[in-house]
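Reagents: none. Just compute today. L-aspartate oxidase.
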Amino acid sequence: MIPSYLVDFDLSSLPVVETDVLVIGSGIAGLFTAIKAGEERRVLMITKKSLLESNTRYAQGGIAAVIAEDDSPAYHLQDTLIAGAGLCRSAAVEALVNEGPDGVKELIRLGTAFDEENGVLALTQEGAHSHRRILHANGDATGYEIVRALAVEANEHPGIEVWDEHFVIDLITDHGECIGALVQKADGSQVFVKAQATVLCSGGAGQLYRYTTNPEVATADGVAMAYRAGAVIRDMEFIQFHPTSLCYPGAPRFLISEAVRGEGAVLRNVKGERFMERYHEQLELAPRDIVARAIVSEMEATNSTFVYLDITHESTELIKHRFPTIHETCMRYGLDMTTDWIPVAPAAHYMMGGVKTDLSGESSIGRLFACGEVSSTGVHGANRLASNSLSEAIVFGRRIVERVLTLPPLAPIRYEHFAGGIGRKVVAEQRPVSERRLRLQKMMVRYVGLRRNGVNLQGAMEQLQHELHYFDQMLTQREEMEYANLLTCAWLVTTGALHRQESRGAHYREDFPQRDDVVWQKHSLQQREQAIVEELMS
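Predicted 3D structure written out:
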């Protein structure tokens, strides 16, 4: 049983800090939402590391928006709906494609320097996009440039206070509304942050898996705390694996952007054979789930742990100009992408599901909002289209602030009524939490990864069931709480994957290999203390 709260607490005995808007997380979603809210409200932004450490920072390819004259929102809409495999919410996608260009203009106004060619914004193409509509910065360092610009703005903004190195433990609710959060400081002490509105911008869950393109901080904190608070969580079975992460001894699983294939790179197995024609008519530019599974199939057929990405037929000048970060990183490990084939393999990349929101970013709990990867707005469906995530964060960040500005003041709170936990007496086990985490990650790769089946998923459920006693312990360290959040998210993903008896988008069942629109064109909803339920498409 997953509890309502991770730790025991009594609000009446804790120091209280009050703010108008509490923003949890510092990627593009958190920074942009904080800046927009800070124009009219006091904002407190909490990040468990620093402003520059988030998934956004590692986003290479770019941000998708209709800029070119030969492109249109209708084309972008169609591409997104196709990639989403029948589970996108059309109204959410319409908001994205129509409001995305203005969001890009806002980023430029806030200091983001996108690449230009001949005085106009440079656009590239990525997998499953029908047109060139991907803006990029410094070649392949788009995310870093956006976060850099927004972090400068946030740090200098008089309406924004930033708490680095703070960890949000749990959300506090009262009569169906979120009234703030329980926060742990760097010294281990706790404080209650009371807020008129709370916005989860805490990113994804890449650390659920042994191999991921995500940073260490991506431990599913936001989804887990929202679930514990009673929020509706949607479509958690859909985890996107990026087809091409660097797979080389001594090197991290560094993302090799989809844009490399967009610029003409081809995939070869270890025999040197180009293979994508056997899997999809769009070849290397097929949707990510298809490319990722094709790579795994080739790895198995050739008894290898990787395939090759080959862009050596392009000019050295183009490669160095377009992909300076990737080129430099590969060179650090003795790989020259201008002359060498790069060894790559799939890695966990993006969580399509998350906290269910409406078109204003509000969750099923009043005053609790979600933005960015932690949210399920309906934009991505069963498979996110490349570079739509940064656009989504901007579009829905702005919509959230518009809604927040209409909220009435919170009713007075009687703090003595708030105490959480279950009187935990058991001290955390001496076994390092790092061992538990690694064991969980390996199990998720093996049983709940790119290819799934009922037997393995049931085995995963049984292992997770045995591990739930972890919540009975007294958790004091950040790493212990992060593991509790990963365990919660693993339960949600596995439950959703076992429930959905079909293959759709990023969810592939070997025992149900076909997409079944008659029975399964609907969402999976999960809520604490309730069985999984299905929601028809809206």
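The two ends are 31 Å apart (CA to CA).
Action item: order primers for follow-up constructs.
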